[in-house]
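Exercise 3.2. Students should predict the tertiary structure of the chain below and write it as structure tokens, then compare their answer with the key that follows.

Predict this chain's 3D structure.
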Amino acid sequence: MRHDEVDAVDVRLGARLAGLRAEHGWSLGELADRSGVSRSTLSRAERAETSPTASLLNRLCAVYGRTMSQLLSEVEAEPEAVVRSAAQPLWQDRTSGFVRRSVSPPHPALRGELVEARLAPGADIAYDRPPMAGLEQHLWILEGALDVTEQDTEHHLRTGDCLRMRVWGPTRFRCAAPEGVRYLLAVVRP
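Answer key:
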């Protein structure tokens, strides 16, 4: 690995470490007390003035309740700016008539993703819970019609309509169009 690539990883790692500390609402002193690492070492690591050692990362991972692999995956190289059509993963549930194209696939450095979805006429998909409580979704109907039920509220959507929601409970998607429906789903992790 080139020296400039190592430095870039240290910068992203430092920023992630600072972000984790902020998420927990801890000062450098509080983190030092919890981890047994000096405030100055923590500060230098967060500012990428030094490359953290495996021992230091292990201590911080223990405090933050994650593995080193998890932490390092969170600072992977920045995602490619352009996701070519051929690189957009396609998944199909033949039983329900659901086709899902990951237009902007998830990446550890990003909180959002874009999905193009198609449902066949009469398709009815129910989810008993969100994959992540409080997941933010923006569903824009490109062609056709879709009935969406979130918990106990039903929405009848037609071409051009956009439903914005945070998902806390069960949801149901029913294709209400004889020609099927195509929609764009923007998903943002909490």
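Discussion points: Residues 8 and 117 are 36 Å apart (CA to CA). Strands lie at 90-93, 98-104, 112-119, 124-127, 135-143, 145-150, 153-158, 162-167, 171-175, 181-188.
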